[in-house]
Amino acid sequence: MSIVYVLLAHGFEEIEALAVIDILRRGEVNVMSVSIEETNWVLGSHNIRVEADILFSELQLNECSMIVLPGGSIGTQRLYDYPGIHELLRKVSLNVSIAAICAAPSILARDGYLSGISATSHPSYEKVMIDQGVDYSYEAVVVSGRFVTSRGAGTALDFGLALLACLKDEAAAQAVREAIVLDMKV
Asked: Partners of 2 in the beta sheet?
């Protein structure tokens, strides 16, 4: 069974994590939220408390199809500072898709995964991305091979739909887009 893991740290951007989880579950993708904290409870950047499905120590990499890193400046810094993240990315980078939104693409850029490829981030991380050799894009969502990046909370639904299209196909993403009445005229 293939699993998408959405990693959560205190200070994560709630919309960016929960919209992705919601979109993917609507598209019948197996998604699990993962706490890097000592407990399953993770506090988002807007004081919304979320119970993660599992702890980081419970990850099953042999079942992993994608890793998703939500943003939020504090959450992104906590992810970056967490020792297991860099080892995880190194282990999966050759055969698993990795997605990041808002500030989180900076983790991938600083670890060298986005050097020379097209990617995006929150505008406040543009310089960090460019300094790391990223072919910086201003698109809402950028798919570059196994890497998917997006700009921020306002692009979270499009990001989730792009991930669904990558994991399944455009028809699955379009079906969810229609079901949630995104971009449809009434």
From this structure: none
